[in-house]
């Protein structure tokens, strides 16, 4: 989606005009800065950010600003540079950010009652493919190389099945390996017959048309993957962290649930359990992304 | 037809779906269109209407499309994001030169794709390259259905090129971890595949004259081959169900009679939800009676650019649905409710059909281009629709008097409602909206709400509408020109010089809002009593008519049923909360399709066997059908 902006497009938000009912925090006399990563139309995201930032400002008692970064890497850099205090990202980028800059997990997203999901290998029902081994020499599309459910975890199923020696040996097993750019693009490529399989989130078939959904199935599923996470830069004032976290948890309350759609649309949030990400850390090490 | 949006997870992610056929009972939520791609698709759609709405074509480029997530229209977007000037296109629009508009708009989109591909190849980091590829691909969506329909090999070749292109942009990783370099050579080769096809088909200097505007590639048009592009609706269209979903009140159901014991009614219920009884484009788009009149109520969100002037309104005798029935008048009407249908004749906003049967046939054959319905189909549709009852309202007695539950203001308003006014020829509101005949008089009156079509015309008479349930059917009047019941009161007070005080107007409004209220206007859902469960129950009830039709060896009506219900059941599974049970529903839909397959080959034993299996499996999975 074309939106021409600097590496960081700052959006001055409603915070300046927000009437705060919360007690102002002496420790945070400047605005709390949130970095968002676009999953779809960045312009819509700007509107969403404006809506949620105003609410957060009134709940936390400090001004809140949000801005859109071009990708995960830029968001992590913003945390490292102190340009951002908080960011929203996947489990894999988080563990990398944790290792590199000491990022702190605050909250985990909840989907369908769980702070976790899985990755699956999807195929067309009429493909005759019933097992991972059937994909030898066939083409597969993944979402993105820095995606836990859209690459690392689905690929690990092939390692687990002893079809691939390790993460670097995928090309030797498959015909072609593509990175389609996202769940939807990978699933569409599979559904249209451009590739034989797609590795994506367990919910990714819902991105197809209802007719296409009936035409696809899945043949392997990863262990649970911790869901996307809200993280803080190291050194962010503890009281600010608490206030932010508590405010975000109030999004679970019935009267606030409508605001979740401004934040990538999870069903809710729970406090992040750092140990829940051990599996992702192990996975990142296996792929050579972490030492 | 029960549909709902997919869950929040899905809404958060964009899917590049086009609202198009084949038969789609459950329309997919559409991914947002880029502004210039939306304007292009709107131009193709509007350019096929007769007379061509040139103002709307201009608006399509100047303003964001209805429901757009972008705050600016295509022209402003191009100004900020592209070096390609729109002057030739704007000149063609000004000249109202249809062919030139098509050519200029097509070339503009093709150039935009090339511009973004240039940016992708030149980008100095993977994130920017991927962003440009994504944009180019979203612009390519403007042409994708035309290429897929006409040139499947090219569609596949280009699809692989997009995959190749995105894969070869590399990855920035995170702070260097997981970074992979771009492969310029592969990017350029993939880009070449796309750009060459664009040059041959969408960047040509002179396009062959187009009778129908479409995204078909020029080389295919020149070949003279006849290609059917699946019908699609333009950006800004909305054919989703109402939210919240209105409650359906069926007379037999309120009396505790099971619909499966009323096969004619159940078959009519199925036909009401079936796009198969219409012709294309309605059939291909999945448009059925229930698209506009879902749950016997009004679909207030329905909107099709060029055919609707506002949500909840549609011009069914325009150029889109059945060109032979095009009256060449831009006269969309506010969709009427069908509640209490057996009491609300004559039919049509102007009461032009005394017979509901004649009205229904006209809808099927003339308005939506369907084949002539059989007598059985009309009997069934009428049997079903005549069961539609008004919403119960405890503030109103059966003969239209207020009960003690009605607010005081409404009691005062009732007196005004029954007061004769000299300005109304000594008639009162209740003279036409007769309380003890469901607030209507079954006559057409010219109250001055219709602009006369020509000097001396006597065409302003409209059928008196009921006031029951009207709290939930805004806006009001035949053209939906009045947004609230208060506005209706104001209109009468002012246009008829009734001389009501502000307090009297408020009381009269309170009365209308009381008469038009309902105890339970909407369906109540929870975690397990979901919209899908309701759909599942409806669809299996429809199928129950096979118990009647199979012994009769009525192949025509069986196939109409199996084709409709199998497709709907499968499509509606995408709305299930219980995702784990989806495969079972797909298998059940397949069972029903097998009944149809067997009937097509005249194998009645196999048809009976599949039907028996369907019933058994439907019972087995009912608890998990949510």
Automatic annotation (TrEMBL), chain A:
Q: Is Ribonucleoprotein one of the keywords UniProt gives this record?
A: no
Q: Which UniProt keywords apply?
A: Signal
Q: Which residues belong to the signal peptide in this entry?
A: 1-27
Q: Which CDD domains match?
A: PBP2_PhnD_like
PANTHER family reported for this sequence = PHOSPHONATES-BINDING PERIPLASMIC PROTEIN
Q: Which GO terms describe its cellular component?
A: ATP-binding cassette (ABC) transporter complex
In the record, the note on similarity to other proteins reads: Belongs to the phosphate/phosphite/phosphonate binding protein family.
Q: What is this protein called?
A: Phosphate/phosphite/phosphonate ABC transporter substrate-binding protein
Q: Which SUPFAM superfamilies match?
A: Periplasmic binding protein-like II
Q: Which GO terms describe its biological process?
A: transmembrane transport
TrEMBL record, chain B:
Report the principal subcellular site.
other
Signal peptide extent: 1-25
Q: Which Gene3D superfamilies match?
A: Cytochrome c-like domain
Q: Which residues form the Cytochrome c domain?
A: 408-516
Kindly give the InterPro entries that the UniProt entry links to this protein: Cyt_c-like_dom, Cyt_c-like_dom_sf, Cytochrome_c_Peroxidase/MauG, Di-haem_cyt_c_peroxidsae
Subcellular location(s): the record lists: Cell envelope
Q: Which Pfam families match?
A: CCP_MauG
Q: What sections of the sequence does the record tag as coiled-coil?
A: none
Which Gene Ontology terms of cellular component type are present?
cell envelope
Gene Ontology MF terms: cytochrome-c peroxidase activity; electron transfer activity; heme binding; metal ion binding
Keywords linked to the UniProt accession = Heme, Iron, Metal-binding, Oxidoreductase, Signal
Q: What is this protein called?
A: Cytochrome C
Q: What is the lineage of its organism?
A: Bacteria, Pseudomonadati, Pseudomonadota, Alphaproteobacteria, Rhodobacterales
């Amino acid at each position: 989606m074309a939106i021409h902006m600097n590496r960081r497009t700052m959006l001055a938000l409603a915070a300046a005009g927000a009437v705060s009912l919360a007690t102002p925090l002496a420790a945070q006399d400047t605005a709390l800065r949130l970095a968002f990563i676009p999953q779809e139309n960045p312009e819509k995201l700007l509107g969403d950010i404006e809506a949620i930032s105003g609410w957060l400002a009134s709940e936390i008692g400090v001004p809140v600003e949000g801005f859109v970064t071009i990708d995960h890497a830029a968001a992590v850099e913003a945390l490292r540079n102190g340009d951002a205090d908080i960011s929203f990202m996947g489990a894999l980028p988080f563990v990398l950010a944790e290792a590199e800059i000491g990022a702190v997990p605050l909250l985990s997203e909840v989907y369908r009652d769980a702070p976790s999901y899985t990755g699956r290998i999807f195929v067309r029902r009429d493909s005759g493919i019933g097992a991972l081994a059937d994909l030898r020499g066939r083409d597969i599309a993944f979402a993105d190389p820095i995606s836990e459910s859209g690459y690392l975890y689905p690929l690990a199923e092939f390692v687990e099945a002893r079809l691939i020696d390790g993460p670097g040996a995928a090309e030797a097993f498959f015909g072609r390996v593509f990175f389609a750019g996202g769940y939807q693009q990978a699933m569409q490529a599979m559904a249209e017959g451009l590739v034989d399989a797609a590795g994506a989130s367990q919910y990714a078939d819902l991105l197809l048309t209802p007719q296409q959904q009936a035409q696809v199935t899945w043949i392997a599923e990863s262990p649970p993957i911790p869901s996307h996470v809200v993280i803080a830069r190291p050194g962010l004032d503890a009281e600010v962290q608490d206030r932010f976290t508590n405010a975000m948890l109030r999004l679970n309350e019935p009267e606030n649930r409508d605001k979740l759609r401004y934040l990538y649309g999870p069903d809710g949030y729970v406090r992040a359990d750092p140990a829940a990400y051990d599996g992702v850390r192990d996975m990142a090490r296996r792929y050579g992304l972490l030492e | 037809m029960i549909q709902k949006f997919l869950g929040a997870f899905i809404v958060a992610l964009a899917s590049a779906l086009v609202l198009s056929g084949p038969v789609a009972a459950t329309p997919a939520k559409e991914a947002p269109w880029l502004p210039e791609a939306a304007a292009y698709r709107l131009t193709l759609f509007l350019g096929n209407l007769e007379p061509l709405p040139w103002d709307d074509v201009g608006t399509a480029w100047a303003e964001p499309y209805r429901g757009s997530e972008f705050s600016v229209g295509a022209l402003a977007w191009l100004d900020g994001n592209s070096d390609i000037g729109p002057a030739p296109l704007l000149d063609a629009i000004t000249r109202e030169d249809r062919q030139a508009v098509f050519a200029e708009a097509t070339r503009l989109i093709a150039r935009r794709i090339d511009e973004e591909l240039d940016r992708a190849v030149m980008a100095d980091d993977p994130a920017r390259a991927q962003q440009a590829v994504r944009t180019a691909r979203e612009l390519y969506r403007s042409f994708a259905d035309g290429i897929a329909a006409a040139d499947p090999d090219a569609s596949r070749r280009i699809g692989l090129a997009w995959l190749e292109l995105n894969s070869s942009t590399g990855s920035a990783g995170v702070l260097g971890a997981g970074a992979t370099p771009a492969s310029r050579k592969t990017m350029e080769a993939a880009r070449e595949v796309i750009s060459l096809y664009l040059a041959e088909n969408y960047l040509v200097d002179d396009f062959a004259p187009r009778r129908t505007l479409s995204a078909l590639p020029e080389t295919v048009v020149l070949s003279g081959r006849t290609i059917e592009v699946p019908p699609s609706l333009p950006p800004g269209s909305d054919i989703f169900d109402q939210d919240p979903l209105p409650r359906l009140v069926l007379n037999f159901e309120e009396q505790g009679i099971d619909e499966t014991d009323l096969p004619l009614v159940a078959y009519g219920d199925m036909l009401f939800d079936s796009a198969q009884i219409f012709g294309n484009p309605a059939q291909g788009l999945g448009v059925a009676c229930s698209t506009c009149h879902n749950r016997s109520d009004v679909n207030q969100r329905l909107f099709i650019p060029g055919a609707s002037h506002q949500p909840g309104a549609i011009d069914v005798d325009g150029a889109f649905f059945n060109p032979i029935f095009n009256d060449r008048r831009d006269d969309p009407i506010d969709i009427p409710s069908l509640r209490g249908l057996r009491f609300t004749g004559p039919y049509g906003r102007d009461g032009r059909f005394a017979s509901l049967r004649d009205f229904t046939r006209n809808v099927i054959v003339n308005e939506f281009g369907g084949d002539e319905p059989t007598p059985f189909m009309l009997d069934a549709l009428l049997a079903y629709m005549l069961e539609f009852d008004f919403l119960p309202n405890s503030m109103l007695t059966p003969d239209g008097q207020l009960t003690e539950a009605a607010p005081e203001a409404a009691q005062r308003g009732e007196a005004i409602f029954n007061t004769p006014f000299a300005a109304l020829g000594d008639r009162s509101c209740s003279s036409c909206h007769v309380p003890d005949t469901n607030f209507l008089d079954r006559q057409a009156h010219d109250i001055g709400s219709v602009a006369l079509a020509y000097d001396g015309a006597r065409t302003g008479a409209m059928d008196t509408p009921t006031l029951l349930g009207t709290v939930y059917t805004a806006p009001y009047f035949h053209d939906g020109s009045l947004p609230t019941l208060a506005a209706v009161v104001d209109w009468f007070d002012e246009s008829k010089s009734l001389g009501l005080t502000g307090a009297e107007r408020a009381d009269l409004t309170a009365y209308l809002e009381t008469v038009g209220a309902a105890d339970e206007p909407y369906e109540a859902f929870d975690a397990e009593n979901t919209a899908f469960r309701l759909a599942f129950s409806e669809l299996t009830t429809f199928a129950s008519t096979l118990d009647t039709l199979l012994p009769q060896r009525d192949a025509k009506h069986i196939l109409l049923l199996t084709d409709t219900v199998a497709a709907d059941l499968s499509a509606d599974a995408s709305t299930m909360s219980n995702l784990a049970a989806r495969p079972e529903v797909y298998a059940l839909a397949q069972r029903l399709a097998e009944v149809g397959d067997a009937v097509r080959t005249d194998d009645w034993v196999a048809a009976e066997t599949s039907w028996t299996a369907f019933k058994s499996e439907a019972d087995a999975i009912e608890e998990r059908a949510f």
